[in-house]
Amino acid sequence: xKKRAYIIAFLLFIPFTFLYAQNGTxxxxxxxxxxxxxxxxxxxxxxxxxxxxxxxxxxxxxHSMLDFNFSxxxxxxxxxxxxxxLNGKKNYYPLPSLSYVQxxxxxxxxxxxxxxxxxxxxxxxxNHALFRDQSGNYIQQKYHSMLAxxxxxxxxxxxxxxxxxxxxxxxxxxxxxxxxxxxxxxxSVMQGVANPNxxxxxxxxxxxxxxxxxxxxxxxxxxxxxxxxxxxxxxGRIGLAFKPNDKFSMGITYAxxxxxxxxxxxxxxxxxAQFNDAxxxxxxxxxxxxxxxxxxxxxxxxxxxxxxxxxxxxAGMVAQYDLKxxxxxPQSVGIGFSYAANKQLHxxxxxxxxxxxxxxxxxxxxxxxxxxxxxNRMMGNNGSFNIDFPLEWKNTIILKFGTEYDLNDKATIRxxxxxxxxxxxxxxxxxxxPAIVENHAMLGFSYLISTPLRINLALEHAFAHKQTASVxxxxxxxxxSSVSKLSTTLFHVSLNYSFK
Length: 500
Fold this sequence. Notes:
By secondary structure, the chain is mainly beta.
């Protein structure tokens, strides 16, 4: 009992910083044992990862157990548009989890765990049509995103009858988010009045054709860097587990939607390249209207014109903001079955529905306390404004199939296949929010090192999937008809210690 008390204390006080951020697609399960058979665990009751999939199932564990799982993700990304054709940065991401379940003789069972539960992200260095030097050469831009979700806390299960159990998981959820990329918006966001005589806004001026005194832009772009966004919130899951005999078991589970209200972020918006391009167009327009003017005269005249609009060119076009953001992790419903054909051979199936359409409709960004008077003037505000970043993801269905075979009393082999429909629509697919893989294959192996200690190994591969963006992307023009490609490989290992 003293040994278990130390384990419980360790789980309670282990810092969240132990959990590293995940990039890539959402994990299909949280333990090498179940991942070796396709991540099937809703109706298969054999590990502490049930706290994340079906907490009712912990009532049917044979004994108390401690489990440490370590996964290593290696995503492979590629992006192509009219001026880029390149691979993303090759990253490796460690994803650890730690869990303990107390299975006693009473009708009550409980568990405690910390899990790396999901995330996505990417790193590219790419060309953008706007960002060039004076010679016309591209100034490559960084494209980076990171969404990491970690959760931990207790689970409890009550065995209603020898065949039926109900369980509940209540977790704290900690998430971090970063986002760095050229960020494009419609010129209409610039509501500041440029010409009081006719009421023309900066947005209208930037969008109007040259014949009407404008710059002819259909979008305006800033080099954006959003970081330090964090949130601590709550997630809950309820599960039913039914095991009428030793051959068959099934489970049903529901997870509530999880609000991610990120705070304490910082954002940098650099509109230097966009303003320089507009300034250059204004000089060209002035010189066409005044054929004898020199470049110096045109520059001085355009600076005076902007000054009359309230723009101090010397103050630059870089602003710092305080940042908040809102996202939501989806509610989900799952059902799972397992069947023992004989003492050695088992089959399992899980089916899940994820409500991405409600969760990832848009990412709401709230910027405040903008430090640059020029940008505030053009935006027509005091440095505070809101933006809805379009996502419009679709609901998905995940189908998991798995099998395992006991070679002998110590060794088990496993295999599995998973299909998960792509939630990202063509109109919002872009390379730094990759979540487009659909088909996964898994292999697994377990070996009983000693009576209490088992090692589980699994290899998971998500096959490459390409997606072509719409002709008119909702995110930015640079993604029009672009092609994003993603595959991932994950290595999983877990050590399971049984208290028999």
